[in-house]
Design brief:
Number of helices: 14
Strand content: 5-15%
Radius of gyration: 19 Å
Distance between the termini: 37 Å
Shape: globular
CATH architecture: Alpha-Beta Barrel
Number of domains: 1
Bound molecules: zinc ion
Largest sheet: 8 strands, parallel, barrel
Helix content: 40-55%
Number of strands: 10
């Protein structure tokens, strides 16, 4: 774990969504061009049902290239936008489950650290009625996706992304994400992705130290920091609370560099990957956006007195990164998102790796859940 490997303590990885085209391994080359520590990819066209078929050796080639990569330390996948696990339409639901399963198969094949998913919309019918469907769909996909069955391959969790809050989209609050996690009974194969633009648009103000602390406290109380598989680090084209999903380049939107810094500099997020999904000049994140994100992170770390070590490390970020590049430990072992916290012991991580053994995972999760539930109730009562 990281505390035993000082050279891997470079903090937040800054990554970027990269476009498709060409051989699969070209995604890594694009990450290099951007100076990104991590990449996010679509496993197929995000607005079409038709799955892209990858031969097993193509996936294996990607895994091999990613495993030893000197600067791109993690790959995340983003699921198809058409998927709606909350729909009451049986045909759409069936297609969604099939598509999610195909997405997850590819993500696993690539050795991805997580598959980010927009859960979908109940179109105003209410979340409660949709929860059993959502839970069933997640379980079917997680149980049925192809698995390369490599002993040293980390699990690929499905990461539920928070929503900006329009049109009955599930995940418009952290409480709704908690409800979905409860519905899957804390299944260790399900985590979350927090999108900073969606959070802002849904009316959560984390742009001050106090506000950011409150968000982290709420995450702790509702489902725990271990569930955060990655962040989407996006500024906002639209105002606070506008419930619209419109990304802006980091520092150029209504959140601004200081607002983003307050959250991503939080020490509780020191081990997460923050992925840019920003327009750039219309063609996605640029190297300048990645650099801007790193500057925002450094600013956020410096805003936190009492975490001077991190701030210092960040100021000297490039030597730290160079050290990481030579660390085969870090580069070769992308931990599953649910086992990323520095506080995790080896034993805990080992338990989390056997995520598919539902019995032990379920019991552990249930115990954790009881503890979290108590805190959450206290919070609810006091607010
Ligand atoms: Zn997304
Ligand atoms: Zn978005």
């Amino acid at each position: 774990m990281s505390e035993h490997h000082p050279d891997s303590l470079q903090g937040v990885l800054i990554g970027a969504h990269v476009r498709g085209g060409g051989p699969l391994t070209a995604r890594l080359d694009r990450g290099v061009e951007l100076g990104a520590d991590a990449v996010q990819i679509f496993t197929q066209s995000p607005r079409a049902w038709k799955p892209t078929q990858y031969a097993p050796d193509v996936l294996a080639a990607y895994r091999d290239a990613a495993r030893g990569h000197e600067s791109v330390h993690a790959t995340f996948a983003h699921a198809t936008y058409l998927i709606n696990l909350a729909t009451a339409d049986e045909t759409l639901f069936a297609r969604s489950v099939e598509c999610l399963t195909a997405n997850l198969s590819v993500a696993r094949g690539m050795g991805a650290a997580g598959l980010v998913l927009h859960v979908g919309s109940h179109h105003g019918a209410g979340l409660d009625g949709a929860l059993p469907r959502i839970a069933a769909a997640l379980k079917v996909a997680l149980d049925n996706a192809d698995d390369p069955k490599e002993a040293d391959l980390p699990a690929c969790p499905i990461l539920l992304e928070n929503a900006a809050g329009s049109g009955g989209t599930v995940g418009r609050t952290l409480e709704e994400l908690e409800c979905v996690l409860d519905a899957v009974r804390g299944d260790e194969r399900v985590g979350v992705c927090i999108d900073t633009q969606h959070l802002w648009a849904s009316g959560v103000d984390y742009s001050t130290i106090e506000g950011a602390d409150a968000v982290i406290d709420e995450v702790r109380a509702r489902f725990g920091l271990d569930r955060i598989g990655c962040l989407h680090l996006n500024d906002s084209k639209v105002p606070f609370g506008s419930n619209r999903d419109r990304h802006e380049n980091p520092g150029d939107g209504s959140i601004g560099a200081d607002g983003l810094a307050a959250l991503i500099g939080h020490p509780a997020l020191a081990d997460v990957t923050a992925l840019l999904e920003v327009p750039g000049e219309g063609d996605g994140p640029r190297a300048t956006d990645v650099a801007a994100a790193r500057a925002i992170l450094a600013k956020g770390e410096a805003m936190r007195p009492g975490h001077k070590d991190r701030a210092h490390k960040s100021a000297a970020a490039k030597p730290a990164r160079a050290a990481v590049a030579t660390s085969t430990k870090r580069a070769g072992t992308v931990k599953p998102a649910t086992a990323k916290r520095p506080a995790s012991t080896k034993a805990e991580s080992a338990t989390k790796r056997t995520v598919s053994s539902a019995t032990s995972g379920g019991t552990k999760a249930a115990a954790a859940k009881r503890a979290v539930g108590t805190t959450a109730k206290k919070r609810k009562a006091s607010s």
